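Late entry, written up from scratch paper. The run itself happened at the end of the previous shift, but nothing got recorded in the book at the time, so transcribing now.
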Amino acid sequence: MRKHWRRLLALGAFFVLVGGVAACGSGVPGNSVASMAQNPITTTAFNHWMYVAAKSQAAQNPGAPVIVPTDPPDFKACIAQVRKTIPTLAKTPDAQIKTDCKQLFTSLSGQVMSFLIKAYWYQAEAHRQGIVVTDQQVQTAFQKAKKQQFQAEAQFQQFLTQTGQTQEDILYRFRINQIFQKLLAKYQTKVTPAQISAYYQSHLSQFGTPETRNMQIVLTKTQAQANQAKAAIQSGQSWASVAKQFSIDPTSKNSGGNLVGVSKGQQDQALDSAAFSAPLNQVEGPVKGQFGYYIYRVTKINKAKQQSLAQATPLIQQTLTGQQQASSQQQVDNQAKAHWLKQTFCRDLFMVPQCSGYKAPKTSSTAAPSPTAPSGSGAPPPGSGAPPPGSGAPPPGSGAPPPGSGAPPSGSGAPPSGSGTPPSGSGTPPSGSGTPPPSNTP
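Output as recorded:
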């Protein structure tokens, strides 16, 4: 039910940062961090989903406090909270803690902002294309996944508590997954037998194993030593005893001179050429190689094996389906970006690539890991800019929670009742919550 996050840098091993404070942004209301076609992403909505991300991260480190800074760029409150909450950092210089606060804030807020903006993009794009998702479709998908993953209602409620989400959050994400899948359906095509055959023919080596040989060798410095070793073997001495006495090869000397499962091209070129043209069970050599003189004997030939097209088809089908899905996801993203990027404005502290006028920093911060949610809860598959299945932050296309969607109150450690809850009927973007007014429709 949970997807483990990597440990973040610096303070990430001890706490998680969430929050948001406004800076200037073109056309962004004062209580919001961004606006898409005059539809705001409110600070409370942003804080709520940051809290979900923080809650999930903190769950990976039992006992870790959830610290909620709301004061970039100075982070004075963050610094004070760190000193109070984490005794081991009480004497750490302000500048160092501030740097860590900023780094983690940028990491988490950047990811959440991308999610929330693409949320609006997908909702607006679906509305533009006349795509509708009903309440019944959402409930059916939600109840099916819930039944599969949770044996009792108490387990589901525990999951919500652990991730900082409400049932309405999960339903919201399921709704957007339905929208996202309908957007994808316009670009997806079935993999054909001809495509499978073409892939098989151009990747034959992936569906077979080359010939390998087991052999015994003795490597000596001089040709005279090699001839002595060969004579000893031919007189009846064991290969192991001769290898131990004469060989200078550290790999095979103490293992009876044996080399097992050798593929062509793995050994010294001279030995390789000779051994792969030699008959079975005959002492051959000496052969001069890069490292000395070899005597050798091939003891087993393992013939090359090749899967048939029929045998390889299931794997090829899976591979090509994945490629086509990734392509479809990219086309959905490109279409949404083409229509909505120019109408998306963000405050300076919240700029991400999905914001109009974004300029990439000279150095990028480490990406924040994804939070947690039950699989099937609405995250588009990886590759669409969405968190992987099982993530809890809203995926691109999940829709920013509308205004009033509960940020966690200061110091409470939990969102208030109803936080992150979209209004009734929110699957069809209402005016001001994902659908641009007629004057803004491209």
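The radius of gyration is 31 Å.
(Scratch paper discarded after transcription.)
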